[in-house]
Amino acid sequence: MTEPLPIVEMRDISIEFPGVKALDGVDFRLIQGEVHALMGENGAGKSTLIKALTGVYKIDSGSILVSGQERLLHGTADAQAAGISTVYQEVNLVTNLSIGENVMLGHEVRGLLGINWRATHRAATEALARLGLDYLDTHLPLSSLSIAMQQLVAISRAMAIKAKVLILDEPTSSLDAAEVEGLFRVMRTLRDQGVAILFVSHFLDQIYAISDRLTVLRNGKYEGEYLTRDLDRHALISKMIGKDLDALKSLGGNRRTEERDRAVDPVVAIEGLGRRGSIEPTDLEIHRGEVVGFAGLLGSGRTELARLLYGADRPDEGSITIHGKRVDVKSPADGLNHRVAFSTENRRDEGIIADLTVRENMILAVQAERGWARPIPKKEQEEIVQRYIAALNVRPADPNRPIKNLSGGNQQKVLLGRWLATKPELLILDEPTRGIDVGAKAEIQEAVAELAEEGMSVVFISSELEEVVRLSERIVVLKDHQKIGEIVNGPDVTAQRIVDVIAAHGVEAAAHSSLVEAEDDIIAEVNE
Ligand code: ADP
Ligand code: MG
């Protein structure tokens, strides 16, 4: 079978920034009627390639052909004229205008007396119909739509200006599952109409769900182009990080469950700990060097339970015992005093402080613990910072950089370093790998496994069940604000198994209890 001619061909493209070859002789092509995923770790050059294609960056060398003709793209207007449109994560629309006005912005239908609004709205509806969105009332303000729908309107706008190439750079990072499905429906519709779509996402599931072809970049270099169906996940990740998955292999199987002597006192024990409307009374023991996974859907109570453990919320019943002593954890500062640290899932809003440097971000928790009146001496700061930059492989390894200039994965490593610097006995990690690239993810997973080896206890919360299964020794399953089971990890424990436990629970109380009995490694009553 001969392949159709590519609509875009980028040949031997190089772009250099002071000190960095962001792109080094990269080839890339887009074929019409295909979704093409551009893959690579953070810093690989994806956004730079996109900016070259959209005329934002001038290329130092190489050539760009659109429909077989070489084009010099000296700005976004040139790219648009060539039929190349981009929809960014932050939708660039005008929220106080109507949906129809946004779709047609700058391309309103004009008559003798100026803009013909009736015809403009009709054209908007036609453009929306191409995406199966003609049910939207084009007269409503854009602000009446969810962000996800606004994004679809932005795509519709790109189509109204007859884009042949649609570029979506991480469009899914703030969407929920249903919204992603909606976006994918639209993408498939456009693909079937012959549009070439360039798609960037950190979520491998999405890549496999939507893309036909993919190109992998590594360190600014072209690694290869593949049909998605020919490249399995392991092969893809290896190509992205440029090594065999040795790093991951050590974590390949599920973590070995140690023969725990349950008679040994746990580091932390909670009994009947609960808070109305947030989490039902819960029992749990966490031993030294143990990774306990919290699995459950968003809103299942996993974060809520963690919040009681480190003092962000106050329980209204139950007790927390640390090293056999009953304690009152009234605030996160109390938590830290008892050597319980928590790293938030909300990296952007609660975690990093964007304008501070890596150093300042990293010493923050230790400083808070000591009190702000006693600044940490320079030398000690340096020790902390150097130690965790090295241990967690923070890149670039420059403590004086503003943290906002680091990739998400490296920001996450700095956050992890911040809490490790407090030398916790129990470290609670809420979604530590969400939205970061595979390389950093593997490094963080490795770090967690190592910390546990060294004796730290870890609560690991993640929406990705595979990851929970890979790292945890025990998995606490939550649903509807309560703990519904506990699974001791072993070779036959899989993500699917956890999903089944969640799905089965509460369907019928009787059916559930027999399921618990049948599953010999689900401990119904842990503390007995
Ligand atoms: P990706 O999108 O794959 O994460 P980027 O294309 O953003 O990667 O970055 C590639 C490399 O180029 C990185 O090392 C990044 O730090 C560098 N870089 C990107 N944009 C600029 C810029 N405007 N100035 C200097 N360096 C940049
Ligand atoms: Mg990018």
- Determine and state the CATH class of the largest domain: Alpha Beta
Largest sheet: 6 strands, mixed
Query: Number of helix segments?
Result: 19
Give, in spatial order, the strands making up the sheet with the most strands: 6-9-10-3-11-12
Number of strands: 22
- The CATH superfamily of the largest domain bears the name P-loop containing nucleotide triphosphate hydrolases
CATH topology of the largest domain, by name, is Rossmann fold
In angstroms, what is the radius of gyration? 26 Å
3D shape: globular
Strand content: 15-25%
Shape-level CATH architecture of the largest domain: 3-Layer(aba) Sandwich
Q: Distance between the terminal alpha carbons, to the nearest Å?
A: 65 Å
Low-confidence stretches: 245-257, 508-528
Count of domains: 3
Task: Summarize this structure as a short list of keywords or feature phrases.
single chain, six-stranded mixed beta sheet, alpha/beta, binds magnesium ion, Rossmann fold, 24% strand, disordered C terminus, globular, 528 residues, binds adenosine-5'-diphosphate
